[in-house]
Amino acid sequence: MGEKTPVYESVRKNEEYIRKKCDQCADIIIRPMRLGDERKVDCLIVYLEVAVSNMMLEDSVIGKLINHFWEIPPSQMKEFLKNNSLGISDVKELPTLEEAVEAMLAGNAVFFMDGYDQAVKIAGKGYPAMMVGKAETEKVLRGSKEGFTDSVKINSALIRKRVKDTRLKVVERQMGVRSNTMLQLLYVEDLVQEDLLSEIQRRLDQFEIDGIFDSGMVEQLTEEVWYSPFPQFQSTERPDRAAMELLEGRIVLLCDNSPMALLLPTTFHSFMTSSEDMYNRFEMVSFVRMLRYLAVLTAVLLPGLYLAVIRFHTQVLPANLILSFAEARAGVPFSSVVELVFLELSFELIREAGVRMPGPLGNAIGIVGGLIIGQASVTANLVSPIVVIIVALTALGSLAIPSEEFSAPFRLLKYLFLAAGGYLGLFGIVLGIYLVVSHLAGLLSFQVPYLTPFVRKDGSADGGILRRPLRKMNRRPVFARREHRIRMRSRTEE
Question: CA–CA separation, 24 vs 243, rounded Å?
């Protein structure tokens, strides 16, 4: 990006550079001042009006130092600034003007002094941000109700609150040529695999882009198989889930201005688990997990299986049930494929409209719209009642998947299986299953097989559909280093 400009000893040159760089930026305050006893020394403070207030400047370390400058001879000001401010956590030296501008745009104040060839960053309160709120998309009955915010600093603090260990490392980096968005990589030093850490850093360095405004953009740029509908990063808005995964040896990627954290690597099974699975008893958790896997099969296969059976393989159903289906379809002018596609698309429209509608109105639209369209279509003899039931069960199956982003590919694949079952019968369904499973079997998330632990034993106690009792879950999964797989020991056995 070119050579860096060092900070000048002349505060006038620094001010000239800053004013030229920040021309027509009314929200940036450039405040010259003269400090020091006897003869005055020129100084300069640059800050964002919203991020740094006059009150903050007065109460900060540098503000108190400035008050002392009125009584100090100019010859001692430089030494006094070095000895009394740079050892404080909220003050840092910056050797270049580019770094000074970046620090100012990040919400800090920057101080220049004549005869001093370093800029001094004064930590500010940053940009206005929402306070910690509730998790909205990952609701649980038991567990913390806190959710991530738009501030990356607050998000890492929420994780640090749960993992009070200096081995939890937080690495900061910038991404976006114009946005200069801060990213944070969080990992536990003795658990993370070094090649995994190197790989994600390599992928982040692959692209140069104007701006990054959400973690979803980072995900799309760094995923290996970009054409796959299945996500290769797992997202979460729950700090407790992120902290839990860090202790499994995974990496958490936080993006400023985004309330969603990315977890890597990930697997099919990871998307089918919830944070509250660790908080509840293993019997109920195992039962709920089986329901989730059944929900996946229902969301993908049910419409296609229905079409395959009624169009090609009616002999597999009892005669009474076939007659009931035929009676329900009496008078319907469209083929079974058309009526099923019509209702599926109608439900997707209702679902999308419910998301866009504000607050309680969105829920009302979903319920009332579904009832009205379904009942009116049956009354008008446009669709059969059995198709309404099929679409409703398919919708419930997709909504039962814990992760919204993971349910999206199944919502798309549903139409593939619908067409395969409607025109090829059970052969089309089997062919579709073969293609999807083959794709998943060959998919990797940072060198970890996507179908782990079904295609590869990871040695963990919670590697399958059934969850073991907590006291038996003594090993970490394949994400962690091999020499640190033991996570729990019984003191009575020692």
Answer: 43
* Secondary element (H or E) of residue 379: helix 360-379
Whole-number Å distance between alpha carbons of 114 and 353: 60
Helices (H), 70-111: 74-85, 97-105
Q: What are the pLDDT digits (tens) for 135-156?
A: 777 888 888 888 898 888 889 8
pLDDT digits (tens, 9 = 90+) for 120-137: 887 766 666 667 777 777
Q: How large is the C-alpha radius of gyration of the chain? A: 30
- Specify the DSSP element, H or E, that contains 181: strand 181-188
Low-confidence ranges of the chain (pLDDT < 50): 86-87
> What does the buried/exposed string (b/e) look like for 259-290 if buried means 16 or more CB atoms within 10 Å of the residue's CB?
bbbbbbbbbbbbbbbbbbbbebebeebbebbe
Please report, in angstroms and rounded to a whole number, the separation of the first and last CA atoms in the chain: 58
Backbone dihedral angles phi then psi of residue 252, each to the nearest 5 degrees:
-110, 130
Q: Are 181 and 255 in contact (CB under 8 A)?
A: yes
Cα dihedral 382, 384, 390, 396 in deg (nearest 10): 60
